[in-house]
Write a structure and sequence with these properties.
- The chain is of the alpha/beta class.
- It has 13 helices and 24 strands.
- The protein has helices spanning about 65, 75-80, 85-90, 125-140, 205-220, 235, 250-265, 300-310, 320-325, 360, 370-385, 415, 430-445; strands at about 5, 10-15, 20-25, 30-35, 60, 95, 100, 115-120, 145-150, 225-230, 270, 295, 340, 390-395, 420, 425, 460-465, 470-475, 480-485, 495-500, 505-510, 530-535, 545-550, 555-560.
- Strands 5-6-9-10-11-12-13-14 form an eight-stranded parallel beta barrel, surrounded by four helices.
């Protein structure tokens, strides 16, 4: 069905702006809407409870390239469901999907050009396909966050609400060179355009209701557990170069406040991609903040890039690394608000010089080399043992080396890691060992083995560091029953590296990144050692000490057997 809209003697055929699925013509124009029954049998998934703030590991992925039935084809929600056992085995408990709202162009594109905000991408399986995917994920204990784009929309003609009723007019400040204004859903003035497309008019009551209704639809009908909001700075600030604006766009700011309040009321989690390290974004609305639960931390990414993105040990700063671990930056931040990562869809694309998949950043000539693997694993380890909300980008769990190229996204390389179904691996790939390394860390992070909840807290005490040795040791958890020792240098210590520890007794080695079980290139230092005994000699401000076998560019996690929580 479609709407016939008349304005000043002209007739216009339009889709229903609230339609859950749309039909396009050969040129990508939206020409009709599809009626869907909102009822759905959620079964036991109806009672799914998503993880809390600090008890989540996010896995960012693109549906359309995750599990295509043939090379270069489009993977649907149903195809992705076939590989959920793999993600459950990895241990992650949140999937963050790149935009699944209807967008023009190749379905294998990134999707940050929405054209019909209430419709789910038909090539992915549409409205019902999304619900089946979220249901299947919930049945495996995995929540689904959706990446939503409200800072802009796709430009005409592939835009279902552009000049919807035929009306438009130029208001003062409308930017030159951008054609016609967009009508009732869009600004007509200096805020009309972003660098990516036209900006919705957040001052219009109908548009504000439209955005909030969209959130309700995705949460109530589709059971999304949360959202990652694209470029919130271009919602809370106006003009094309929004990041340069000194003041906030009041209506955009308040719409974000209303949105985060609604999401919280519905039991969801809100993540901002603001990238300004601005504490206001995650401050409570009751204190004048925007109210996001967390925000992407490029500040952490750039710090880790400086420290772990180079092969030269002389270029590493242990103090800068500690800032990244603790989020103890000069301009503030306590770590609780941040989503931290070494890879995401932007950073792994290679669009900007010096970026890409982390192994390519370290060694572009041979991203499978020893140093590329070692420093990439140090990055993964840092993300999963530091306070905040950790996030992995799909393929990172086994050190995928293919950049997430804009406009030419490769298929997910299953032959690199293997297939996992019904609790069994088949066609095991060469990087399955790195997968197991990441899985060990994820399980530690989420306390899946009931060993310690230390990594689900914000408690951290960095009590030892050495710029000469490029080592750092810190405790996690209020009981200080977990110690993380990290070595950012080529020097190994097979006979042991002495560190202080807060408790006496036996300290179990629950993670050692240097094991050759993870990679044949690794040093295997400490492979035969599973536990350490303390000596009653104070060291580094701690009452006891142990000697830890420590490989080059490696991490060891110790857990006190007497204080396991």
């Amino acid at each position: 069905y479609s709407f016939l809209v008349s304005f000043l003697g002209q007739n216009y055929t339009r889709i229903d702006p609230l339609s859950r699925e749309v039909i396009s013509d050969d040129e990508g124009n939206y020409i009709a809407s599809i009626i869907h029954n909102p009822s759905f049998n959620w079964g036991a998934a109806a009672d799914f409870v998503p993880p809390t703030h600090f008890e989540q590991v996010i896995y960012e992925m693109q549906v359309s390239t995750f599990n295509p039935s043939s090379p270069g084809s489009v993977s649907s929600f149903y195809d992705a469901i076939e590989q959920l056992d793999y993600l459950q085995h990895l241990g992650i408990n949140v999937i963050e999907v790149l935009p699944v709202i209807e967008f023009p162009g190749s379905p294998r594109g990134w999707g940050y050009n929405p054209g019909a905000p209430f419709a789910i991408e038909k090539a992915f399986g549409g409205y019902n396909g999304l619900r089946e995917f979220i249901k299947a994920s919930a049945m495996r204990g995995i929540a689904v966050y959706i990446d939503i784009v409200w800072n802009h929309m796709n430009g005409p003609p592939n835009n279902g609400v552009w000049q919807f009723d035929g009306w438009y007019e130029y208001h003062p400040g409308f930017p030159a060179g951008f054609g016609l204004p967009g009508g009732i859903y869009f600004y007509q003035d200096s805020n009309a355009e972003t660098s990516w497309g036209p900006r919705p008019n957040y001052a219009a009551p109908s548009v504000r209701r439209y955005v909030l209704h969209n959130i309700e639809m995705l949460m109530k009908e589709c059971h999304a557990s949360g959202f990652r909001w694209d470029s919130t700075i271009c919602i809370r600030k106006g003009s094309q170069a929004c990041w340069d604006m000194p003041t906030d766009l009041i209506e955009g700011y308040s719409l974000l406040q209303e949105s985060t309040t609604l999401i919280r009321q519905l039991g969801g989690f809100s993540i901002a991609e603001d990238l300004q390290n601005n504490a206001t974004v995650t401050s409570p609305t009751s204190q004048g903040g925007i109210g996001f639960d967390a925000q992407w931390s490029d500040t952490t990414w750039y710090a880790l890039d400086d420290v772990l993105g180079t092969q030269d040990d002389n270029q590493r700063s242990i103090s800068q690394f500690i800032q990244a671990v603790e989020a103890s930056y000069p301009d503030g931040g306590d770590g609780t608000w941040r989503v931290l990562y070494t890879e995401n869809h932007d950073k792994s694309s290679g669009q900007n010089a010096g970026q890409g998949r982390w192994p390519n950043i370290v060694d572009s000539s041979d991203p499978t080399s020893y140093i590329a693997q070692k420093l990439s694993v140090l990055g993964i380890t840092t993300v999963l043992v530091s306070p905040g909300v950790p996030m992995l980008f799909y393929g990172q769990e086994f050190l995928d080396t293919e950049n997430f190229a804009f406009g030419d996204v490769p298929d997910f390389p299953w032959d690199t890691v293997g297939q996992y179904h019904n609790e069994t691996w088949t066609n095991i790939g060469p990087y399955n060992g790195i997968f197991n390394l990441t899985r060990t860390l994820v399980n530690l992070r989420l306390n899946n083995g009931n060993l310690s909840n230390a990594l689900t807290t914000t408690d951290i005490n960095t009590y030892w560091s050495s710029q000469d040795d490029l080592t750092v040791a810190f405790t996690r958890g209020s009981e200080q029953n977990m110690v993380v020792l990290m070595n950012l240098k080529s020097q190994s210590y097979p006979e042991g590296y002495k560190i202080g520890v807060p408790h006496s007794g036996t300290w179990d080695i629950v993670f050692n990144s240097d094991l050759q079980a993870y990679s044949s290139l690794f040093g295997n230092v400490g492979a035969s050692v599973s536990s350490l005994s303390t000596s009653a000699q104070p060291l580094q401000g701690m009452p006891y000490q142990v000697s830890v076998p420590l490989g080059a560019y490696s991490s060891v996690v110790l857990l006190n057997s007497n204080t396991k929580v």
